[in-house]
Every structure is written in structure tokens, then in C-alpha cells.
Amino acid sequence: ISDGEGIKADFSFWQHGNLLYSHGYGSGFASDCSRIASIVAGTQFAFPREKIDLLTSLVLDGHQWMMRCHMSDYSARGREISRWHINGRYMKSVAENMLSLPTGRDAEFEALAKRVDGILDPPFEGNRHFHKSDFMTHHRRGYYSSVRMYSDRVLNTDGLINEEGLKDHHIGDGCNFLFRDGDEYYDIFPVWDWQKVPGTTVVRTPELSGDYQRKGETSFVGGVSDGTYGFAAFDFRRYDLTARKTWFFFDREYVCLGSGISCASGYPVVTTVNQCLLRGKVTLPETGDTVTGGVHEFTEPFSIHHDGVLYCFPGRQAVRLENDTRTGSWYDINHMYPESDVSLDVFTLWIDHGESPENAGYEYIVVPDIDTGDIGRYRQKDMRIRMLRNDPAMQAVSHDGLGVTGIAFYEPGSLADPEGFSVGADIPCLVLLRDRHSELH
User: Fold this and answer.
1) What is the phi-psi region of residue 290: left when phi exceeds 0, alpha when psi lies from -120 to 50, beta otherwise?
2) Could you tell me the pTM of the whole model?
3) Torsion 56-62-65-66 (CA) sign
4) Which long-range contacts link 247-250 to residues 24+ away (Cβ below 8 Å)?
């Protein structure tokens, strides 16, 4: 366990300073160490048991929490996000190497190898917050999601090295990836709008600007988890832009809140819900209509369904949708590649806060792994979410069906829930409540 680069106490992995790199440099570390350990097993050079245990924890309590099926989380790859054809298939070899060692966790390594091959039974489920790296991951049978943040303790991205990762400016600004089969973003990055990284709130300037690599300007960044449910909170500041952002992870869905979004730069500010490959139809469940290609604007409460994911916007907010072909070049993000054009169909969904917003906000719900035929039942019976508070002092959400409530106290205060409980805090903190008498617990 290292105080600097290497294996952290939460089993994330750092390289190039205080920077999350579990599936970048950490992939080479896990691959090489597991291979060497398997080769020298049973000899005078065999790894001592405490080192095997440490390597086991790095893989099972760290790396595997940051991937879905064959795909590693791009948030944990550093500048390697700009390399083509990257994935997490190396983890199968790592698991097989570890199976030759006395780890005491063979069943978990066997299951890991199967998941890389797409065998999701038994499912890998749970929530984990990596407090050293300001990173939360959430696993369910039907999906995986993560939130990548940074603070005055952690760097946002790698430096400009080897002329790659040239547009990674905002990858740490609350990046929220969503995977179902793992290929939702595969090789999309040459055509990505890098000012619309999923989950981030960004000032739309004519060109990417500002410090490329930086530490955050705030310390109140982190998460709380009981291993099953959790939420992450981000007191975000980047130059003139401020925002308070939270992600609440449940079973069928997760909830995203933003408040205090202010910026006097004179440029527009947007919060991106998702930007992924366009796969199949985009539909409006309220009407059953299919959304044609192009740019569309919605202002009334509505929802939209794409690629097995339902996005719900319960309040009045300026939501934009673009589903169209986009062209770019790998060379633009990584100079090791040719300048030839790449064209892909892209689905982009974002909230427009306008120019120089003052105390703007947003709220939306993401429901992964849901077919169009199940949306009506979900809304009538299963959508048991209440938005309790969403302002710069506090953000709070309750899931009445699960008996789970998350509260981010950015300031000392109290919350009285109409359903009967109250909770207060005398310092800024995160609170996760479980109702032991709820209908499901």
C-alpha cells in the first residue's frame, strides 16, 4: 500500500502523481505481477502470501469494480482513452494467472474470467466508493455506472505525454459513464464532443481552454456507500464556473441533481446526460413517437428512450437532443494515429443552462435496462423516487420503495421529511439512511 503512486488503501491505483490509473498503468501492473507470480509459484522465488493477498485485493476489490463485461471503465484509463480498440479483456488472463496461486478466492476469479467473456450469471452487484481517488462505481445485473470526480487531493487527468489524450480537459469533471453490454462508447472518441463528456457541467468555449491537468479547487468531494447503495457529491469549481452535483445510485435507476450552477464568463453552460453511440431508435414514451435525426429541444417534463435506457426529466428544463452522424479524426486526440476522417452515428443528450447562468440547476433520472413495454408499469408502480431538496445548501433524494435516503449537507442544516423522519448535521457531510421497516427490508 502506497502513500504515493501505486496501490492505494482503497485498492485503486495511481500513476503520474495523485491520478486514478487503475486500467491504464494499473493494467500493466496487474498483468505483469500476476504472470510473474504464477511462473515462480512453488519455487524459491515465489511471492510471499502477504504479497499474493495484496495483489488479490488489487484485482478483486479494485480493478474488477471498474469494468463491465469485457470493457474497462474509460474513467480509469487516463490518457489511454484516446487509444483505439481499448478494452478490459486482459483481465481474463489476470484472473487465470491468479487461479494458479493460493488466494482463497478462486470462485471470485473464476466468475471474473466468465464475465469478461460475457457470462453474467452469477451477476456482480454492489456499490463501491474509492475515497482515495474520488471515484464511485455501481453494479447491477443489467448495467454498470460510475462517477469520476477530482478535488484538491486528486488530479483530473494525465499530462500531455506522447501527444495523446489531447482533449481530456473535462474527463474528471463529474464524468458519468453508463454501460450495459460494454460497447456503448467503443471507439467513439475521435467524433466525441469533448465539451459534452457524460455527466459533466462545462462552459462551452470556442476551443478547449484552461489548464489541461489540474487539481481541484475544493475539498468537499466524495461519496458514501453501504456496499449496496451509495451516492457521490461534488462541490465543483473550475475557474469562473461553480456547481454542486450529486448522483444517487439505487437498483433500477440512479438520480442526478445539480444546483448553484453559476458562471460569469459570457459563454453558454451545459450539463451532459449522455453522449454515446446511436444504436436503434430514439423514442418518446409519452407519445410513442420516434425522434428523427437532427437537433431537438424539449422544455416541458418528458422522457426519452434509447438503447434500452430511459431518461426522465421531471421538471421544466431546456433539454437538447442530437441524434445524427458526426465526423472526426483519431489524430485530433492522439498524434500517433492518421489524420483520416471517421464518421459515426452519435446520441447526445444535454441540458442547456444558457449564457452566464446564475444559480441554475437540473434534475433527471436514468433508468437503464428497460424495454419500451415495461416503461408504463415502471412509472405506475416502481418509480418511488422523491426529490427532497436540491439547492446549494443541500441535495437529498429518497427512494420510498427501497427505504433509502441520501443527503448531501454542503452546510450545517436539517431536513424534515414529510414521511416522518428528520435528520440534522452540524458540519458538512454525506448521510445515507436505510429504513429497516420499509416494505423491501
Assistant:
1) beta
2) 0.96
3) negative
4) 247/136, 247/147, 247/176, 247/199, 248/397, 248/399, 248/406, 249/127, 249/136, 249/138, 249/145, 250/385, 250/399, 250/402, 250/404
| Residue 115 C-alpha from the chain's centroid | 20
* pLDDT at residue 437, as a whole number: 67
Packing angle between helix 90-98 and helix 25-40, nearest 10 degrees? 30
Least confident span in 123-132, 200-209, 385-394? 200-209
Q: What's the 3-state SS for 410-437?
A: CCCEEEECCCCCEEEECCCEEEEEECCC
pLDDT tens per residue across span 313-365? 999 999 999 999 999 999 999 999 999 999 999 999 999 999 999 999 999 99
Q: Which set of grid coordinates corresponds to residue 214?
A: 489540474
Residue 150 corresponds to which cell in the numbers above?
A: 477530482
- Cα separation of 410 and 429, whole Å? 7
DSSP state at residue 82: G
pLDDT of 42-100, one tens digit each?
Answer: 999 999 999 999 999 999 999 999 999 999 999 999 999 999 999 999 999 999 999 99
Torsion of CA 366, 372, 374, 377, to 10 degrees: 80
Percent helix, strand and coil across the chain, each rounded to 5? Answer: 15, 40, 45
Say how far apart CA 94 and CA 112 lie, in whole Å.
10
Cis bond upstream, residue 314 (ω within 30): no
Here the cell at position 424 is 440534522
How many whole angstroms separate alpha carbon 182 and alpha carbon 129?
Answer: 21
The Cβ of residue 267 has, within 10 Å, a number of other Cβ atoms equal to: 16
